């Protein structure tokens, strides 16, 4: 199998928006929702998800402190070209 790559990745993948509806009770300071993209890796015998590698792009959004009713929190993962 050959991994699909592009020198202009923004033409293949656009920004991705993740939305989570979240309610909280007595939420402490510093809560975060984080998303990231990790490119495919080789097989690893010790981990069914493959070799571990750093994210090439990531984004996060803070979770409000205190107690709050359900609200939408949005994190946008911006498509960026990377070197192949």
Features:
two-stranded antiparallel sheet, mainly beta, 84 residues, elongated, two-stranded antiparallel ribbon
Task: Write up what this structure looks like.
With 84 residues, the chain is an all-beta fold. It has one domain (9-40, 50-77). Helices cover 0% and strands 43% of the residues. It has no helices and 4 strands. The protein has strands at 16-27, 32-37, 57-62, 66-77. It has a two-stranded antiparallel ribbon. It has a two-stranded antiparallel ribbon with strand order 2-3. The radius of gyration is 17 Å and the shape is elongated. It starts with 15 loop residues before the first strand and ends in a 7-residue tail after the last strand. The model has no long low-confidence stretch (mean pLDDT 80).
Summarize the structure.
This protein is mainly β. It has strands at residues 16-27, 32-37, 57-62, 66-77.
The unreliable regions are none
Number of helices: 0
Helix content: under 10%
Q: How far apart are the first and last residues' alpha carbons, in Å?
A: 17 Å
Encode the helix/strand succession as letters. EEEE
Output the structural class.
mainly beta
Largest sheet: 2 strands, antiparallel
Number of domains: 1
The neighbouring-strand order within the major sheet is: 1-4
Strand residue content: 35-45%
Shape: elongated
What is the alpha-carbon Rg in Å? 17 Å
Report mean pLDDT, rounded to a whole number: 80
Q: How many strand segments?
A: 4
Topology:
Blueprint: E1 16-27, E2 32-37, E3 57-62, E4 66-77
Antiparallel strand pairs: 1-4, 2-3
């Amino acid at each position: 199998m050959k991994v699909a790559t592009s020198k202009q990745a923004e033409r293949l993948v656009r920004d991705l928006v993740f939305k989570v509806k979240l309610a909280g009770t007595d939420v402490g300071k510093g809560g975060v929702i984080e998303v990231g993209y990790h490119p495919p890796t080789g097989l690893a015998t010790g981990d069914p998800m493959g070799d571990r590698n750093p994210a090439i792009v990531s984004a996060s959004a803070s979770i409000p402190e205190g107690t709050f009713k359900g609200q939408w929190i949005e994190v946008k993962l911006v498509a960026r070209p990377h070197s192949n």
